[in-house]
Amino acid sequence: MIEIKNEKVLDWVRECAELTKPAEIVWIDGSNEQLEALRKEACDTGEMIRLNEEKLPGCYYYRTHPKDVARDEKRTVICTTYQKDAGPTNNWVQKDEMYAKLRPLFDGAMKGRTMYAIPFSMGRPGTEFAKIGIELTDSLYVVLSMNIMTHVGEAVLKQLNQGADFVKCLHSKAQIDAKNKYIAHFPEDNTIWSINSAYGGNVLLGKKCLALRIGSWLGRKEGWMAEHMLILCIENPQGEKKYVCAAFPSACGKTNLAMLIPPKHLQEAGYKAYTIGDDIAWLRIGDDGRLYAVNPENGFFGVAPGTNSKTNNNALLTTRKNTIFTNVCRNLDDNTVWWEGLDQPAPVNGEDWQGRPWNGQTATEKGAHPNSRFTAPAENCPSIAPEFFTGEGVPISAIIFGGRRAGAEPLITQSFDWNHGVFMGSKMSSETTAAADGAVGVVRYDPMAMLPFCGYHMGDYFQHWIDMGKKMSNPPKIFNVNWFRRDAEGRFIWPGFGENLRALLWALGRCEGKAEAVETPLGYVPAAGSLDLTGLDVTDEEMQEITTVDKEVWRKELDGLKEWYAKFDHMPDELIASLAKLELALD
Ligand code: SAT
Ligand code: MN
Asked: What are phi and psi of 18, to 5 degrees?
């Protein structure tokens, strides 16, 4: 391994080691030899289980503490000098106070353990978008997962030795003590401290912590954007490639949309879809005045339940090798994995996500946790785009916002312009999911799907969106979608999954001034007949229901929206104006 000579790095690692007192420090260079040895060690200690080598080569099973199975938003904190910089939607603790509170918890937390130092890059090392981090951790699961999710290897070590700046990420699973769990961000210091959790979103610090919370802070400072968005490439029969970004809250189908397989008749017509990212996009303005996106990650941390050959065959195939499964159900007969919604028979001789005997024929409880996950290399994905491997940005034609709402929000709405699109994002709401601790199915505002991930004052964040719009001569068009409308019986009206391409093609049609639309108070919705419904089992009445704006419903929504806006001590004038315009249009 290349020896680290960067004094700043060495000083910081020494400082963290003095605090956490590990028995030894091991640097991770990303070599397969080292990783193989660590995988073996993780299996020897029982931390991980090696799965069936023929059916799932290179795959491992991992289980977290039953109370440590999702992101913990209550324990996620933004620590700045002044509260005004964290804003009304973040948990805030004054940064010096937080260091003082956390230091005793980290003191000796790694005693008798190994501290692994993982230099990593979000974004391909050396590209314009890339940012380096170093995560110090006492968890082998974190080491092995970071190796899948981020870019680890010599290129990063070389950059550090050339003096590259880095985000300081410190993690200790400590005692997995829920009462002392904190995921603390110090954006003013480029620092993240996470303790007493071993769940992905709380501990793979390159992901939500660096690429979104610290990233959004840096993006505002440096003039770019860090967003909770998938990136998808759609190729038309003429071979033209168009790129879209889409922001949905956790566990609302980003991975499925990112890996969508076009409906048969569109495939036959020559449409193709390619995956660039499924969770995070970093966006910059190009010299041509367009917005360019990269996926800073190197793997997928996807929700397992519900993934099957029909909903997302590409994801399923992605997980057939070199994947870590967390909190799914294990089939003891052939040492493979299973989850609810998988189109394979449930094991009769299984072990549930908590390690208890589980029989798919008699079980009354779930075999896999609803937020059980796979951590899989992006290169495994059959639909991965060549652009993913260059790390250069792709020009974005459309930005899609979307939440999970049984009513109110139409299937697809186009904003009147960029600023109105920012308003659309600011009013996004969605039913909560198992991806975060707490109740499931409660509607909450989740602007741009960034409520849990914006590292600063959300009013300033909206302003940053407005400002970015001003700097672009050719900004993406902005849309809002809702795949989750339900009928009176509670059934989903829109088929979703691959069929969502139909709505995206309408959106791309709008970008080219082709598809027909009708103006409503919320924006433009598809005119009757403008959305391709070939072969779909949706009636005209149902289409009508999901593409019209119910003014009565929206007058009630407006009350909630005003309350939501009132939370902010400042909001861009452009958004206040859009809200007023909506109110007027609903009258
Ligand atoms: O658990 S993660 O935060 O990494 C995934 C998600 O909730 O979006
Ligand atoms: Mn996410």
From this structure: -60, -35
Alpha-carbon torsion (155, 157, 162, 164), positive or negative: positive
Q: Per-residue confidence at 288, pLDDT binned at 50, 70, 90?
A: very high
Do residues 375 and 333 share a domain? yes
Indicate whether 64 belongs to any domain: no
Domain containing residue 376: CATH number:
2.170.8.10
How many angstroms separate the alpha carbon of residue 302 from the centre of ligand 2?
Answer: 9
Is 142's pLDDT higher than 90?
A: yes
**C-beta of 435 in contact with ligand 1 (< 6 A):** yes
462 within a domain of the structure (yes/no): yes
Residue 51: inside a domain, yes or no? no
Which atom of ligand 1 has the smallest separation from the CA of 435?
7
* Token digits of residue 442: 């409660």
Which amino acid residue places its CA nearest to atom 3 of ligand 1? 201
d(CA 587, CA 574): 20
Domain edge (last residue) among 360, 380, 400 = 380
Cα of 71 vs centre of ligand 1, distance in Å, is: 6
According to the 3-state scheme, what is the secondary structure of 139-166? CHHHHHHHHHHCEECHHHHHHHHCCCCC
Q: How far is the CA of 435 from the centre of ligand 1 (A)?
A: 6
Q: Ligand 1: which of 69, 301, 446 to mutate, most ligand atoms within 8 Å of CB?
A: 301
Is residue 213 in contact with ligand 1, taking CB distance under 6 Å?
Answer: no
Specify the CATH number for the domain of residue 567.
3.90.228.20
Which CATH number do you get for residue 157? 3.40.449.10
Q: Are residue 361 and residue 477 in the same domain, yes or no?
A: no
Mean of the pLDDT values across residues 406-432? 97
- Is the pLDDT at 1 greater than 90? The verdict is no
Cβ–ligand 1 distance for 207 under 6 Å, the answer: yes
- Give the structural domain span for 372: 300-380
Residues 85 and 148 occupy one common structural domain: yes
- pLDDT(123) > 90: yes
Q: Strand runs (DSSP E) across 236-356, as ranges? A: 241-247, 272-277, 281-285, 291-294, 299-303, 324-326, 329-331, 336-338, 350-351
Q: Nearest-5° angle of CA 202, CA 355, CA 321?
A: 65
Among candidate residues 487, 533, 483, 484, the one with its CA nearest the CA of residue 506: 533
**Choice among 252, 329, 381, 454 that is catalytic:** 252
Task: Give yes or no: 252 in active site.
Answer: yes
Q: For residue 55, is it within any domain?
A: no
236 and 281 belong to one structural domain: yes
Rounded to two decimals, what is the model's pTM? 0.98
Tell me the CA–centroid distance for residue 345 and ligand 1, in Å: 28
Residues 283 and 322 in one domain: no
494 plus 367 within the same structural domain: no
- On whether both 191 and 335 belong to a single domain, the answer is no
Q: What pLDDT was estimated at residue 496?
A: 97
Domain shared by 356 and 310, yes or no: yes
| Averaged pLDDT, 120-140 | 97
Which residues hold their Cβ within 5 A of ligand 2, which is an ion?
250, 279
Number of structural domains in the chain: 3
